[in-house]
TrEMBL record:
Pfam families: ThiS. It comes from the Bacteria. This is Molybdopterin converting factor small subunit. It comes from Catenuloplanes atrovinosus.
Length: 78
């Protein structure tokens, strides 16, 4: 899991590795929100996601084995 901008600030780290893979993006986000708290959960609600470099819009779809997930909160500016 790699965090950018506000997600990095909310998680307190730029990336982390989980020992047990989650089946779906929703499951992964729930696990991480439980770990890091409401501030990160709030970022997750507005963020976009990349899984292995591709946009991932279906948060209930099965994740591939050992994915790299990028959390991209909304960015301001040009």
């Amino acid at each position: 899991m790699r965090y950018f901008a506000a997600a990095r600030a909310a998680a307190g780290t730029s990336e982390e590795t989980l020992d047990s893979p989650a089946a779906t993006l929703d499951a992964l986000l729930t696990e991480l929100a439980d770990r890091h708290g409401d501030r990160l959960a709030s970022v997750f609600a507005r963020a976009s996601y990349l899984v292995d470099g591709a946009a991932w819009r279906d948060r209930t779809a099965a994740l591939p084995a050992d994915p790299t997930v990028d959390v991209l909160p909304p960015f301001a500016g040009g």
